[in-house]
Design goal:
The chain has helices spanning 10-48, 75-86, 91-122, 141-147, 150-245, 270-281, 284-291, 301-311, 316-320, 324-331, 341-346, 349-355, 362-368, 377-384, 392-402, 408-418, 430-436, and strands at 419-420, 427-428. It has 451 residues and is an all-alpha fold. The protein has a two-stranded antiparallel ribbon. The longest helix has 96 residues, at 150-245.
Length: 451
């Protein structure tokens, strides 16, 4: 009956039952933590593709409706297990999981000690009053270590951590290789892109080269044409200067050169005309100059007729016995309807050589050169001359390269004829140069004028 001297204090009994319930809650939390540890093991096993971890065994199995609680384990035993687990490579994980439980078990142990102390002071609680919930028997540390293989789990976790680190290093190495391959592939793509650009530029350069080659061929032909034209004009210049210096053309009544010994009769037709032109004009260029009274540079049949009558004053029907049509057709070798001085020179070249004037001499060429193109004869002399006169090198540069008037052999002959002294000190004096390059006469009168 309540209130007897041997009955326990209801308040203390309620507190004791509350402590027992707290221990039961702690046991449930320990079981939940063990389940979480198993889940961690499974996750690590799945991550590392290792065999399934060893399952934790329950420290006590439920037999006959009775089970034990981890809350029965003393605080010192829990500390020992946690310290043993912390000594291995996976101590951080175990401490993170068991730390809150350890704190809670410590608090409950402290409360239980306080209740037991209060019980001893109050006269004690009989075993009869605690039959509904007998006090738990504390677990020894050896039993806990055998039921929860934390050391083995720690080793397994450490091995898996090491394997994970090795796998991470292998993955990092593989990533480095892949990055290197990607860099090489990018370089190859860049080189391929640049190769395409260079190929396009090379194609453009090839097209430009072909275009320039075509233009070069055209320019080369044009240069050859200019060179031939320049040679023709230079020859005309020399011939005109020589004709002025030699007082050609001469009067028609001058003494005619004898015909070849094998000639039986006087020349007739076109040969008679060329015979008369060679005796009077000396060169085909001079004859054409007097025939071209309209200064067109070429003659048609009407110009040829007027040139013979008015330019040279020749009675060609009496001399040749042919009409102007026959004479013009004989000179027009290409049947193009007009003739030039080259056509006259190509017609009966033997008669021109026999009865015409002698070739132009180097001295006449030197006098006929266009010195105005280089500032004048004396100005060019003053620019290149030394104290002793005009030496060979400047003279050769002037007449052969700048004016393109004479050949090297002709230049050597001219320098030898004009220079004073001899050897390396040879030079042309200023007075000699002025006399040799004096202007030619401007005109000599009409070839048909009387004596």
């Amino acid at each position: 009956p309540a209130g007897s001297p041997g009955d326990p204090d209801p308040v203390l009994l309620g507190k004791l039952h509350a402590a027992i319930r707290s221990r039961e809650d702690a046991r449930i939390k320990a079981l939940k933590l063990r389940g979480e540890l198993r889940a961690v093991q499974r996750q690590m096993a799945a991550a590392s593709a290792a065999p399934a971890p060893q399952q934790l065994h329950s420290p006590r199995h439920v037999n006959g409706g009775s089970c034990s609680s981890t809350s029965n384990m003393p605080t010192s035993a829990v500390h020992a297990v946690v310290s043993a687990a912390a000594a291995i490579g996976s101590g951080d994980l175990v401490m993170a999981r068991l730390g809150p439980v350890l704190d809670e078990v410590s608090q409950l142990s402290g409360q239980l000690s306080a209740l037991e102390h209060h019980r001893s002071n109050a006269g004690g609680i009989t075993a009869r009053s605690l039959t509904a919930s007998p006090p738990p028997t504390p677990w020894p540390i050896e039993s806990l270590c055998s039921s929860i293989p934390l050391v083995d789990i720690g080793h397994e976790l450490a091995n898996r951590t090491r394997r994970l680190r090795e796998d991470e290093l292998a993955l990092e190495s593989e990533r480095s290789k892949l990055r290197e391959l990607a860099s090489q592939e990018a370089n190859h793509l860049l080189l391929a892109h640049r190769g395409g650009e260079l190929a396009a530029r090379l194609s453009d350069f090839g097209n430009t080269e072909r275009e320039l080659a075509a233009r070069l061929a055209y320019k080369r032909e044009e240069c050859i044409a200019f060179k031939n034209k320049y040679s023709t004009l230079k020859q005309r210049l020399f011939v005109y200067a020589a004709a002025l210096l030699r007082r050609v053309p001469r009067h028609a009544a001058r003494h005619e050169a004898p015909l070849p010994q094998d000639s039986i009769s006087a020349p007739q037709g076109i040969e008679a005309l060329i015979h008369a032109l060679a005796q009077r004009c000396g060169w085909p260029e001079v004859a054409f100059l007097h025939l071209d009274i309209r200064r067109r540079g070429r003659l048609n049949m009407e110009d040829f007729h007027l040139g013979l009558l008015l330019g040279l004053g020749m009675d060609y029907p009496r001399i040749t016995g042919l009409s102007v049509n026959s004479l013009f057709s004989a000179i027009d070798r290409h049947n193009c309807g007009h003739v030039s001085d080259s056509d006259f020179g190509a017609c009966c070249p033997g008669i021109w050589k026999l009865l015409g004037e002698k070739p132009v001499t180097p001295m006449e060429k030197l006098r006929a050169l266009p010195y105005n193109a280089v500032g004048g004869a004396m100005a060019s002399f003053a620019d290149a001359a030394m104290a002793s006169g005009l030496p060979w090198e400047p003279f050769h540069e002037l007449v052969c390269h700048r004016l393109r008037g004479t050949s090297l052999e002709e230049a050597r002959a001219l320098f030898a004829a004009l220079s004073i002294f001899g050897g390396s000190s040879a030079a042309i004096a200023a007075e000699t140069w002025e006399s040799a390059t004096a202007d030619v006469p401007r005109s000599l009168g009409h070839p048909s004028e009387k004596r």
